[in-house]
Specification:
The protein has helices at about 15-40, 45-60, 65-80, 80-105, and strands at about 1-5, 10. The chain is mainly alpha-helical.
Length: about 120
């Protein structure tokens, strides 16, 4: 209830409390909105940590370059069938051929021929 005294509005204590609470609520909501908008713009710390761990293991780890090259050799024919398909087939044939030559070479060693005696 307004109390009018010579054209000046004065508020009852209950109205002052309600007014102050209303202002405090509006300020709190405004601050929350600002903070939430800031959080939406920045990646969360947990998400950032997960991505950073992935990058560390995949790109920065010791020996990772060699591991990527091995992985690429294994999947190149599947990924780039047209470009590497025949090359990878030839490479595999060469590997198989070299393995068979190694087996034959091992079998012709004197120790391997001991079974004949």
């Amino acid at each position: 209830m307004d109390i009018k005294t010579a054209g000046i509005h004065t508020f009852s204590p209950a109205e002052k409390i309600a007014n102050n609470l209303s202002k405090a609520q509006a300020e709190a909501v405004n601050n929350c909105e600002k903070e939430l908008k800031t959080l939406l713009k920045e990646p969360s710390q947990a998400g950032f940590a997960i991505v950073e761990e992935f990058v560390d293991r995949v790109l920065r780890a010791e020996g990772v370059r060699t591991e990527w090259q091995i992985f690429l050799q294994e999947v190149a024919s599947d990924v780039w069938i047209d470009e590497f398909g025949t090359t990878m087939e030839r490479t595999q044939l060469r590997r198989d051929w070299m393995q068979r030559i190694g087996e034959v070479d091992h079998l012709k060693q004197p120790d391997a021929l001991n079974f004949l005696r």
